[in-house]
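Hallway conversation turned thread

IA: we were arguing at lunch whether anyone had actually written out Anti-sigma U factor RsuA end to end. Turns out nobody had. So, for the record, here is the sequence (247 residues) and right after it the structure tokens. Reply here if something looks off.
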Amino acid sequence: MPSEHETVGAYALGILDDAEATAFEAHLAGCEWCAQQLDELAGMEPMLAALADLPGSGSTPAIGESLSARPSPRLVEKLVDEVSERRAQKRRRSFYMIAAAAALIIAGPLAAVAVSGGSDDGGQVTATPAQSTFRTMSEKKSATDPSTHVSATVGMTQKDWGTQAVLELKNVKGPLKCSLVLVAKNGQRVTMSSWSVPNWGYGVPDARTERAKQPLYIGGAAAFQPHEIDHFEVVTFEGKKLVQVDA
């Protein structure tokens, strides 16, 4: 005779006899774990029809006979485990979708666009969403590093949730992997965005191609308000600072 904990699946399916059901209900009144499991498995009785499709099962019971058809304990356990796993997967998918939506709400389209100006079919340079946003920002800070000669301008917009920023980066050659790091006045460091620099670089004045002459425009976001920010740094993944822009 299985323990009461092992009976929750059979109870949810409605295949216990009266004595077994009464015993389980008495146990259920004081068992929080079984109550939670029963809530997870609620509504499974209609799935009895699916038992006919499983290996080793008999023919599909008639509607009035669904509760009298008693599949083996192993069959019940298999069905219960399968349904529980599917519901867990559904919850995980919902969580990931909510997290992704939250990221898009916070960072907006800037988080998805990290490229320099491109070209349309007519060969004209077109503005990216990040570049268009950069042009509308009224508060901008610029700096050029005397040793690396990399130039950066950071545009900022105050939001209820913190600061939206767009970086304009010039005179940097690759291959590199870089990050825009916000350094707060309290010393905290937050990576706002990251990107790769191709061999030909970004914003290189004497470059051979128009693409390499175009600056990089990339957006980022952080929870700090503008007055809480000390400066911004563009650093490589190896930790080398290419340029610092005071806020």
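OS: looked through it. The helical segments are 8-13, 18-28, 32-40, 73-107, 129-136, 210-213.
IA: good, adding that to the notes. The longest strand covers residues 151-159.
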